[in-house]
Structures are given as C-alpha cells and as structure tokens.
Amino acid sequence: MAGLAKAFGSGAMTNTIEDLAEANVILAIGTNTTEAHPIIGYQMKKAVREGGAKIIVVDPRRIPLVDFAEVWLELKPGTNVALLNGLMNVILTEGLADRDFIAARTEGFEALEAILPKYTPDVVATITGVAAEDIKQAARLYANAERAAICYTMGITQHTTGTDNVLAIANLAMMTGNLGKRGTGVNPLRGQNNVQGACDVGGLPNVFTGYQQVADEASREKFEKAWGVVLSGTPGLTLSEVMEKAGEGEIKALYIMGENPVVSDPDIDHVKKALDKLDFLVVQDIFLTETAEFADVVLPSACFAEKDGTFTNTERRVQRVRKATEPPGAAKPDWQIIAEIGLALRYPMRYNSAEEIFEEIRSLTPSYAGISYERIDEGGLHWPCPSAEHPGTPILHTQAFTRGKGFFSPIEHRASAEEANAEYPLILTTGRSLWQYHTGTMTRRSEALSSLAPKSWVEINPADAAKHDIADGDEVVLTSRRGCLTSTAMVTEGIRKGVVFMPFHYAESAANVLTNTAIDPVAKIPELKVCAVKLAKA
Predict the structure, then answer these.
(1) Percentage above 70 pLDDT, the chain
(2) The pLDDT of residue 354 is above 50
(3) What's the CATH class of domain 2-189?
C-alpha cells in the first residue's frame, strides 16, 4: 500500500509467520485466515492452544477463526477506520498508550490525539454496529498485551478507504509500541503465493525492482545503463486504470499474464466490453481461462512445478522453486516466452537460466543483493539482505523505521462509495473458500476439490431471508447497479443482518458481475468488499 510506505517502507509483513505463535494477542481484521491462508491460520490456532494467546476477530461474518477468538467484532462492512479509531480512543482515554515508544520512535502523534476524542465507543457503535463494551474489551486486550500482532488482508485493502484503513492500523500498532520485536507487527497477508515477489521485482506501475521509483532520475539512470535503453520517468497505470483506458479506446493492445480479470475484476460486464474493444489481446497462461477466450493469441506457459526459479512469500522470505517435471506440449517458462518476444521485437534478452535472471535482479536491487541460489538452497532468506554476509531480516524496524521515525496519520472515517438504500437495501461483501483458489483456474479442474465446493452460494442472515421469503437452498437473484446473477441461498446466523456474502471463484455465477469499480484514490484498489444489492427469490 502506498500510504503505509510513508511509515513502514514496502508495505510487506513486518514479522514472520512463525512469530505469530509467540504473540499474546492477535488482531485479525479483514482476514479469513484459516480459509484464505490455512498455514498462517494454523500458527494463530497454535498461539491459542499452546501459548494461551487471545485472538480478536474483526469481520462481518462468523468466519472459522471466531471459534478461537476471545472477542468477535461483527462490524458493518466499510467502517474499519471508525472501529480502529474507537479502539485508539479507549487506549488513549484509559492511559494505555506506550508513551515511551511514541516519544522515541515516532512523530505526529499530537495530530492523531486531536481527532480521537470524537470516536468514543458509543459513537463508534452507531457507525459500525459493534457494541461499545466489545470495543472497550478489544482495546484493553490489545493494548495490555506484552506482544500484540495485527494481521490483515483484502478485507482491509479492497475499499475506497483502503489506504486510510492501513494507516489507521499503523497508528494502532505504533501507539502501543507493537513493532520491531517478535510476536508483534503489522502483517498484510498476501493473496497469492508470489504477490510479494512480483511487487519486489517491479510488478507495480511506479517502481523498478526493490521499490526504486521510476520518477527518480538516479534510479532510472541505473537501469538504463544495465539494460541499454532509455526509460520513461512517468509511472504507468494500475490494473483498474488499464481496464478503464481500454474501455475508452485509449489502450489498443494488452498483454495479460497469469491473470483472469474476466472473473477477478469488479463489474465484469465492463471488463468484457473493454477487452472486446482492444485491437489486440495476448493472454499467457497454463489453461484456457475465461479471459483467454477473448484473446487473439494465447501463449501456453509452464506451471510452477515445470520450471526453476524463486518465489518471495508473504513474510519476505525468498525461496527456491525447482522443476519437477517437463511442461506439456509447446508450453515454456514465462521468462523464456518473454525473452523470445524481446528478440522478435529486436531487443535481445539473452538469458540461459532463471538463476542468471536472478543474478541480474540482485545486482540491481539493494534489498536482494546478498541473496543467491547457493544461500537459499536449503531454506530461504528474508529481505532486506544487502550483502553476502548479511543474515537476512526476519523482523523489520527493530531500531528505526525506513523513513527514520514512524509517522502518525490522523485518519477520519469516510463512508464507502456505495451504501444501502431503499432500492438496494443489502450490502454485498466477497471473499474466498478454503476449497477453491482465486478464479478456480486450477482448483475447479480438481474433482476432489470441486466435490467439496462445486458451486456458488450466497450467505444470508435469517432475518433478511424471512423478509424476502427465502429458505436455505433456494435459488436467488442478486442485483446491483451493474448487473445480476443467480446463486443458491445459504441461510446462516454467521452473517450480520443487512449483509450478504459470496465467494468470487465461480465464473458461471461470478460475484464480480455485481461489484463496484470505485477505487481508493491513492492505491487505486477497487472497492470489492462493499456494494449495494437487492435480493429476490429466483
């Protein structure tokens, strides 16, 4: 997240997965950890069972982690900032802030301190729907813990206030001194296995590898010299902006690699129209995805088990990936396909192996400079690892933050881009199932996994179901301002009244037909977690 970079650097996990077992309190906010990140969820459960840790779950659904929680804050989607400010209000009022940490390691606390008095538990209860006493209990648990960790995922970031949410989380961690030591930290859990690595090596529109800004002249000169080309200093577009420009006819050609926006992006009808408008579309993937069906050219690539290389996981650990079998047919490793296209475009990219590419990465990326295949052959190393003698950095910010002192941001609650009204009285939020992965490109081809979660469903509170004369198992129609779909009702007390939930994995009943393209103004992430819908029996 761009906003978090102001205080923390890259926006990566500050601590390790293993650290969670040492936390006294874990605040899990906007993360269905046991289903979306089961290994990390195991560490959380281990902390409870073996270490006596207390978990605070913040989620509008009764996710499985609630069974292990001391407190469940069942908030209204889109009210995270108000809730976090409410927790900080209690901490400030009851004298639980770590004044020594604030004085030694941070700046700007006075501005945050000035806005918190208005976020009393009673006021926050009216905004979030969470009981004032529960807010107080959670605040005391977190602030009184010797070691408290925060974990979050896209339930925090996929909002028009996503950057604000992350900054408010950073405020809470700094206010209580829960950074720079084991069992603490601010830990964004990445949604896929190498998202962290893709960001680290320049898979963002405004940076080269290691988050070196394209707008910075010295960084640009460094990469121009290495690659023998002249590079633009203008940041590129994010995925949401690319689709918008394609729909407007400003982008004429698109190359999509390992992504399935026809299922994963908001307002799918808008995505399909944008792809149709392109003059030329290339899709590079391991299967003929829903997006690949729109392509002029499909390039078959090798899967993770069919190539060598590295992944950088959610805790910044760089690890080896080894080829186990040959790719089928004409499929090739992604790097080889890209290199051959470069050659066809008269820019020769002459590499002999993935290791050779990694050597180039570490030569240009200070945080990776000390990492080599030899050093990670038996395990992995956490970046930053600036030299061959450096042991890696499992925990960030032990002495100072990237910018020196951590910066408090006075963040006010703002409403979501779309709220419930008389015509669309329910809020839809989306997420994942344990049994399916992302857009189902791989998992839905597994007979065993598909038998466990073969089709889409809509979770509906009994009060909302009764109002619409819907019984468990009925076929229902959900409609938003952008489209409609049919799915199966799952009537459950595990979802708050006024909210419905759908997993997004199923192309034939794709939740993202309904979702909103409104984006966070800083991070440009769409608001996939909140949109207004109406419900009817099919």
Answers:
(1) 98
(2) yes
(3) alpha beta
pTM equals 0.94
* Strands 253-257, 71-73: pairing kind: unpaired
Q: What burial class does residue 223 get, using C-beta atoms within 10 Å of its C-beta: 0-12 exposed, 13-18 middle, 19+ buried?
A: middle
Burial per residue of 14-45, b for 16 or more beta-carbon CB atoms within 10 angstroms, e otherwise: bbbbebbbbbbbbbbbbbbbbbbbeebbebbb
- Hey, which CATH number is domain 195-382, 2.60.120.200, 3.30.565.10, 3.40.50.740, 3.40.50.1100? 3.40.50.740
76 neighbors 60 (Cβ within 8 angstroms): yes
Q: Which CATH class is domain 426-537?
A: mainly beta
Asked if the model's pLDDT at residue 9 lies above 80, the reply is no
Domain residue spans in the chain?
2-189, 195-382, 426-537
CB 162 within 8 A of CB 156: yes
Q: How far lies 157's CA from each of 28, 31, 167, 416, in Å? A: 14, 10, 11, 13
The helix (run of H) or strand (run of E) holding residue 45 is: helix 38-51
What is residue 62's DSSP assignment? Answer: -
The structure tokens listed for 193 are 């296995």
pLDDT tens by residue, 228-283: 999 999 999 999 999 999 999 999 999 999 999 999 999 999 999 999 999 999 99
DSSP for residue 514: T
Give the DSSP per-residue string, 308-332: -EEEE-TTSEEEEE---SPPPTT-B
DSSP letter assigned to residue 191: S
Amino acid code (one letter) for 536:
A
Q: Rg of the chain over CA atoms, in angstroms?
A: 23
- Is residue 227 classed as helix, strand or coil in its secondary structure? helix
CA distance 54 to 47: 8
Q: Which residues contact 109 (CB under 8 A, 6 or more apart)?
A: 102, 175, 408
